[in-house]
Structure formats: structure tokens, C-alpha cells
Amino acid sequence: MTNLLFIWVAMFLVWTALNAPLSAQKTIFGIILSFLIAVIANVYDKEQKKFKLKTFFYLIKYFLVFLKELVKANLNMARIVLTPYLPISPKIFKVTTSLKSPIARTLLANSITLTPGTISVELDGDTLYIHVVEGDKVENVEDLKGPFEKILREAFE
Amino acid sequence: MQYIGYFFLLIGAVFLALAGLGIYRMPDVLNQSQAGTKASTMGIVGLFVGFAFLKPLWAPKLILMALFFLFTSPIASHAICKAAIKRNKAKFILKENAFSKEGE
Amino acid sequence: MIINVILGLVIFGLLLSFIRLVRSSSIESKVVAIDIMTTISSGLIVIFAFISDNGLFLDVALVYGILSFIGVVAIARYLEGGI
């Protein structure tokens, strides 16, 4: 029941953002449409996990850390591209993660792609294959995951 | 307000140009994807945030589009990299024993 | 005035990735170049919407981004041998 209410409110917010000045017709149609989408999504949701407010706050914290790392990654990449002799030494590393739920693993792989100098090539079970541009500078393989694994573990488990 | 918007616009445009330069200079697929995805994500988000400051009426839609690009462009680059690794594994420089899957 | 500088920078990036698209030999790097080109031209559509002061072009840019994402993922899936 909480899930249905949450999807309803979220879908109505997306509808409001897409049709910015709302008139009466648009509001009524949006309420009906988002209710239909929430019912259909709820029918096909097999796991029925409880929505927790704690997860939501940790996701906001995750998003702020993510933006900071994104800016740092781009400055690093700009330095590499603008250097005349192109200082790259590409390598692929193998890292295991201890996260359990699929959505946490997906978010971890997604944020590794946007952190400095790394890109996640494949996710197979609990093993991540990470491609690194400056492979000579890596000393500890666990550092490649950055601060994200801790935050995601707090959020989803 | 207006100057903040133009500042973000300039940052976004510079990073989009850097994405083109990076994809032009890098030698193989994984490095190209590395340079292109990061810089173009940052550039497009900077551009949209800048326009959201300049035109407050369009702000909700622009922020929605920025979130969309922020979450989908890593997925696209990951899909291409996975396909490239599967098609020709021998061409890339691998660390010893880093990419040994069972049964292949 | 400053919008011309921004337009010039964005078109510079678009041209360089187009050169990479024409001159590269392997098909995966062509797909990467197409991905970057569609992202950059989606930004170009938003700049055009700002210049002509017409909010309808934002919807065009949004749908363009969604379709380019689906196209790139479909091509990658085909190259991998999934379809």
C-alpha cells in the first residue's frame, strides 16, 4: 500500500515537471494517469519490499557525494586529454563487492563509471571488472570503489 | 542570476568540446568511451543547469532531462564496452589474471 | 553575444567526434562516436530552443535523448550476440 502511494506521488511530480503551468484539465488527467501507472507497476512487482524513509535520506547523501566525484573525475579527464603526450596506461582489474541486492549493485557499477579514471566493464555475480586509464598509479584495488560501497550498504541493508 | 547561468553554460560548452577532443585523441574503444562518457555527461548537465538559471519557467523540465542523462549515459557506455570486450578480447591490454572467466 | 561562443565550442566538439566516426576502423568505436554525437546534438537543440525562445523544442530534445539511448543499447546488444 505504501509502495502504491509512493509511486503515485512520484509519477504525479514527473507529470507536473513535464507540463509546467498546470491547468485544471491537466491536473485531473495527470492524477488519473499516474494512479493507473502505479496500479500496473504494483501488480507486476514480485518482491514487494517495504519502502523505508531511511533509504530516501541515504540516497540524497549518495547523490551529493556522487556530484562531487563527478566534478573531480572531469577535471582529471580534462588534464589527461589536454596533456600533449597522452599519459595513459590502460589495464583491467577485478574487484569483488559485498553488496547483496541487485539495485545496490547496479548503482555501484553506475557510480564507478563516473568516478575518476575508471569505467565498469562487466558485472558478473559479485565480481566487477573495472577498466582504469592510468593503471600504473593503482596501488590498492579496494580504493577503486571509492566511498560509495559504504553509503549504499547503509542505505539498502 | 543571469551571470550564474552564463557561467554554467560556459562550463558545459567547454566540457562538450573536451568530449569531442578526447574521443578524437584516444587510441582504442575503452579509452574513447572513458573520455567521451564522463565529459559529455558533465557537459550536458552543465548546459541544462545553466539554461534553468536563465529561463526559470523551463527549470523543472530541464532538471528532469539532466537527471535522465545523468543516469542513462553510464548504462549505454557500459553496454558498448561489454560488447567490445566480448568480441575481441585479445586486443586490449589486460593485467595478468584479471580477466580469466571460468569456462572460456 | 556570449551565446555565439558557446555555440562555437559545442559545434567544435560535434565536428571532432564526426571525424572520429568517419575515420575509425572498428565498429565499436563508431558506436561510441554516435553516442557522443547524439548527446551533443541534443544539447544543440536546447540551445536552439533558447535562441528562438520556443519551449516546444525541449520536448524534441527529450524524445531525441530517449531514442538515442534505446538505439545505442540495441546496437550494443546486437553486437554482443543477444538478439
From TrEMBL, chain A:
<comment type="similarity">
    <text>Belongs to the CPA3 antiporters (TC 2.A.63) subunit E family.</text>
</comment>
<dbReference type="GO" id="GO:0008324">
    <property type="term" value="F:monoatomic cation transmembrane transporter activity"/>
</dbReference>
<dbReference type="Pfam" id="PF01899">
    <property type="entry name" value="MNHE"/>
</dbReference>
<keyword id="KW-0813">Transport</keyword>
<keyword id="KW-1003">Cell membrane</keyword>
<feature type="transmembrane region" description="Helical">
    <location>
        <begin position="29"/>
        <end position="44"/>
    </location>
</feature>
<keyword id="KW-1133">Transmembrane helix</keyword>
<keyword id="KW-0050">Antiport</keyword>
<protein>
    <submittedName>
        <fullName>Multisubunit Na+/H+ antiporter, MnhE subunit</fullName>
    </submittedName>
</protein>
<dbReference type="InterPro" id="IPR002758">
    <property type="entry name" value="Cation_antiport_E"/>
</dbReference>
<keyword id="KW-0472">Membrane</keyword>
<dbReference type="GO" id="GO:0005886">
    <property type="term" value="C:plasma membrane"/>
</dbReference>
<dbReference type="GO" id="GO:0015297">
    <property type="term" value="F:antiporter activity"/>
</dbReference>
<keyword id="KW-0812">Transmembrane</keyword>
From TrEMBL, chain B:
<comment type="similarity">
    <text>Belongs to the CPA3 antiporters (TC 2.A.63) subunit G family.</text>
</comment>
<keyword id="KW-1133">Transmembrane helix</keyword>
<dbReference type="Pfam" id="PF03334">
    <property type="entry name" value="PhaG_MnhG_YufB"/>
</dbReference>
<dbReference type="GO" id="GO:0015385">
    <property type="term" value="F:sodium:proton antiporter activity"/>
</dbReference>
<keyword id="KW-0472">Membrane</keyword>
<dbReference type="InterPro" id="IPR005133">
    <property type="entry name" value="PhaG_MnhG_YufB"/>
</dbReference>
<keyword id="KW-0812">Transmembrane</keyword>
<feature type="transmembrane region" description="Helical">
    <location>
        <begin position="39"/>
        <end position="58"/>
    </location>
</feature>
<protein>
    <submittedName>
        <fullName>Multicomponent Na+:H+ antiporter subunit G</fullName>
    </submittedName>
</protein>
<feature type="transmembrane region" description="Helical">
    <location>
        <begin position="64"/>
        <end position="85"/>
    </location>
</feature>
<feature type="transmembrane region" description="Helical">
    <location>
        <begin position="6"/>
        <end position="27"/>
    </location>
</feature>
UniProtKB/TrEMBL annotation, chain C:
<dbReference type="Pfam" id="PF04066">
    <property type="entry name" value="MrpF_PhaF"/>
</dbReference>
<keyword id="KW-1003">Cell membrane</keyword>
<dbReference type="GO" id="GO:0015385">
    <property type="term" value="F:sodium:proton antiporter activity"/>
</dbReference>
<protein>
    <submittedName>
        <fullName>Multisubunit Na+/H+ antiporter, MnhF subunit</fullName>
    </submittedName>
</protein>
<dbReference type="GO" id="GO:0005886">
    <property type="term" value="C:plasma membrane"/>
</dbReference>
<feature type="transmembrane region" description="Helical">
    <location>
        <begin position="6"/>
        <end position="22"/>
    </location>
</feature>
<keyword id="KW-0472">Membrane</keyword>
<comment type="similarity">
    <text>Belongs to the CPA3 antiporters (TC 2.A.63) subunit F family.</text>
</comment>
<keyword id="KW-0813">Transport</keyword>
<keyword id="KW-0812">Transmembrane</keyword>
<feature type="transmembrane region" description="Helical">
    <location>
        <begin position="57"/>
        <end position="79"/>
    </location>
</feature>
<feature type="transmembrane region" description="Helical">
    <location>
        <begin position="31"/>
        <end position="51"/>
    </location>
</feature>
<dbReference type="InterPro" id="IPR007208">
    <property type="entry name" value="MrpF/PhaF-like"/>
</dbReference>
<keyword id="KW-1133">Transmembrane helix</keyword>
